Amino acid sequence: MIVVQHGGIVAERYAPGFDARTRLLGWSMSKSVNNAPIGALVADGKLQLNAPVPLSSCARRETDTPGHAQAIAHHVYRPAFCWRKLVTKTVGLPIASAQPLPLSSV
User: Fold this and answer.
1) What is the rounded CA–CA span in Å between residue 61 and residue 70?
2) Cα 27 to the center of its chain, rounded Å
3) Cα atoms in the 13 Å half-sphere on the side-chain side of 11
4) Based on the domain organization, do 42 and 2 belong to the same domain?
5) Is 17 part of any domain?
6) Three-state SS string across 48-100, please?
7) Cβ of 63: how many Cβ atoms within 10 Å?
8) Which of 69, 49, 50, 53 is nearest to 61 (CA)?
9) Number of structural domains in the chain
10) Is pLDDT of 92 > 80?
């Protein structure tokens, strides 16, 4: 648990075996952390939920490596999607939970 007051950490406690450097899978916690600033941008009129997400790694590419067909088959590349689909988790990108993820990639 971390207690923040006036923008600074005033107290923190960890369960046995954990400390400030312990990396954890965020899953649902990440949704809240990521969606909060997106919601603030929408409220300020700086982002439209139906606008496309500028994420080039998810766009199909016409010229790609020889493995491009396999990448498409495994949903590595997807057509563009909007912020609404991203924040509601309806983009359709696969979760790599079938294979253990190294904590450094989360």
Assistant:
1) 13
2) 9
3) 3
4) yes
5) yes
6) CCCCECCCHHHCCCCCCCCCHHHHHHCCCCCCCCEHHHHHCCCCCCCCHHHCC
7) 5
8) 69
9) 2
10) no
Give the three-state DSSP class for 3.
Answer: strand
Query: Which two three-digit tokens encode residue 27?
Result: 């899953």
Joined tokens for residue 20:
């400030």
Tell me how far apart the alpha carbons of residues 77 and 70 are, in angstroms, rounded to a whole number.
10
The per-residue pLDDT for 67 is: 52
Enclosing domain of residue 27:
1-47
What is the Cα–Cα distance from 13 to 46, expressed in whole angstroms?
37
**Residue reference for tokens 């965020």:** 26
- Tokens 């493995």 — which residue? 67
Each residue's pLDDT tens digit, 35-63: 999 999 999 999 999 998 887 655 544 44
Instruction: Say how far apart CA 96 and CA 74 lie, in whole Å.
Output: 11
Same domain, 68 and 34: no
The Cα 77–Cα 63 span in angstroms is 13
Residue recorded with tokens 């904590």: 103
